[in-house]
Amino acid sequence: xxxxxxxxxxxxxxxVYRTAVDYDLHKDISRQSAIVKFYCxxxxxxxVDFAVQIHGGMGYSQELPIERIYRDSRINRIFEGTNExxxxxxxREVIKKNGKV
Length: 101
Ligand SMILES: Cc1cc2nc3c(=O)[nH]c(=O)nc-3n(C[C@H](O)[C@H](O)[C@H](O)COP(=O)(O)OP(=O)(O)OC[C@H]3O[C@@H](n4cnc5c(N)ncnc54)[C@H](O)[C@@H]3O)c2cc1C
Known about the structure:
Shape: elongated
CATH class: Mainly Alpha
Bound molecules: flavin-adenine dinucleotide
Oligomer: single chain
């Protein structure tokens, strides 16, 4: 679980930095930012879920902050454009570019 968490964190950092570079180069980042929002919010949920699992019952207990982080992470798939809407944006861009990503 720790390895999978590390992989997702590495991937998240990579796509955030790559998109930030494209933004600084004044490129259109509408597709990339939707990918970043979707991937990071989905990954965060998985990472926090692993954190709960690693700590067993204590991870679920309000005695540790993990339970609060677990609840708080969930909203990221809903606000700032739900992840279903992000997928719509990504798919539209893929179609516009004839399948190129
Ligand atoms: C804690 C919190 C803070 C918030 N802060 C802000 C804020 O600061 N500013 C602000 O403007 N808003 C804010 N919101 C509102 C938030 O942006 C909306 O909840 C969000 O956009 C989803 O809209 P909705 O709740 O009306 O759900 P709906 O639009 O009713 O969506 C319900 C479900 O249907 C899906 N769905 C809807 N349309 C489609 C479609 N075309 N294709 C596929 N699936 C679809 C959605 O993905 C979702 O799963 C906040 C919400 C919460 C809970």
